[in-house]
Structure formats: C-alpha cells, structure tokens
C-alpha cells in the first residue's frame, strides 16, 4: 500500500440538531463518499500474522491466496460488512520447511481444512477514523467470535485510475481456541510457539465496478 500517497481529510464538524444539541457521531466527509462495495487488492495488501517463537523472537507470515468482499457505509458504519476466505496452504513465512509444517496436520491441516474465514457480524464507529468490527473467525471448522480494531488510513485516486481506500486491522487470538494446540516444551522453560497470535490486515481496497447492494 505504501507506493501510493494517502490523502487524509479534515474531520467533519459535528452536526447541530434542530433542538440545539450536538450530535455525538462525527464522521470524516471522505468516509461518507466511500460508501459502496470494495475488494482487497492483493498485490498491495497483506493478510498476515505474527507469533512469538522460542520465547525470544517473532515469526511473521502472510497468506497469498484469498477472496474478499466488503461493503463500507461511511454514513451508517453499522451497515458495513466484510468477508475474507483464505486458502491456508498459501501461508508464507519465508522458510519452505516451516510453511509446510504450518500447513500440515500439526497446525492448519490444509488437506482436511483448506480454508479459514472471517465474516463480520457487526461494526461500531468508535470515533474519528477508528472502528470496531466484530465477526466470526473459522479455522479447522471451529468458529469463534473475534473483535477487530479497524483504522481508516485514507483514500486516493491512484495513477491507474483506481479509487483506493486504506484500512489497518488488528486482533490477537489464542490459537488453542481453534484447536491449534501443537507445541514443544523448552528445556529452560516455556514453549516453542506462543499460544497468542496477532492477526494483521493491511488492506488496500479498490472500489468494485459493479455494486452488489
């Protein structure tokens, strides 16, 4: 996403209702203009994760193959929704042997469970350019709710004529809740792989040419 400049806009002043009160919800005017259907531009996005390894370092990886659909409503954020379906065998941590292990039976078991998914169930505007998107995360046919902090980064018309919007989403899960329980004990204490995994969604979205809503 970094190859395109991000244009941030000024925050819209809160509306004043006829009764004289001040509305509590302030929305960036650019958000209202972004209402519509979007898809993730994979070459300029990253759906990834990071996890502590051997107690002293962090392994980072990403998934190269996934489908996405998003509807963003800048005037009524609660109407926004998103879905991402990921082929887990596309995991890439930069080490082929490790990728094969992660895709194998100790972790994702990609032969039996080739896909994992996130499907939003609600969206709340937390103020400014920050949202809370709740959804169902499914891994190995186990579905559990997660809360995703989603930050709007800006929008731009790129040199190729695509309207883009940038979002950054993060959440931390306990992988054992989804049956990913493999581990090894270290002689000095602790475990080889942390149970806590940080999921990262660095998204450059392109407006869909054929709105579905």
Key attributes of the depicted protein:
single chain, 213 residues, mainly beta, eight-stranded antiparallel β-barrel, 11 strands
Question: What does the model show?
Answer:
The chain is mainly β. Helix content is 6%, strand content 48%. It has 2 helices and 11 strands; from the N terminus they run H-E-E-E-E-E-E-H-E-E-E-E-E. It has helices spanning 29-33, 96-103; strands at 36-40, 46-53, 57-63, 66-72, 81-87, 91-92, 115-127, 130-139, 142-157, 163-174, 193-207. It is elongated and about 55 Å long. The relative contact order is 0.21.
Brief digest:
The chain is 6% helix and 48% strand. The protein has 213 residues and is mainly beta.
């Amino acid at each position: 996403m970094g190859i395109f400049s991000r244009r941030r806009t000024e925050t819209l002043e809160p509306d004043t209702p006829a009764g004289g009160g001040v509305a509590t919800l302030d929305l960036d005017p650019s958000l209202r203009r972004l209402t519509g259907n979007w898809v993730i531009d994979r070459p300029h996005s990253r759906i990834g994760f990071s996890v502590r390894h051997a107690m002293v370092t962090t392994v980072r990886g990403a998934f190269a193959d996934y489908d996405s659909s998003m509807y963003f409503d800048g005037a009524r954020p609660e109407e926004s929704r998103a879905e991402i379906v990921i082929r887990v065998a596309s995991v890439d941590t930069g080490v082929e042997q490790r990728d094969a292990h992660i895709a194998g039976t100790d972790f994702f078991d990609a032969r039996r469970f080739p896909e994992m998914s996130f499907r939003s169930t609600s969206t709340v505007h937390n103020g400014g350019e920050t949202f809370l998107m709740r959804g169902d995360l499914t891994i190995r046919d186990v579905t559990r709710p997660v809360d995703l902090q989603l930050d709007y980064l800006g929008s731009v018309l790129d040199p190729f004529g695509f309207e883009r919007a940038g979002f950054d989403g993060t959440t931390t899960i306990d992988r054992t809740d989804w049956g990913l329980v493999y581990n090894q004990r270290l002689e000095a204490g602790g475990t080889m792989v942390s149970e806590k995994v940080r999921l990262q969604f660095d998204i450059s979205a392109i407006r869909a040419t054929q709105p579905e809503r």
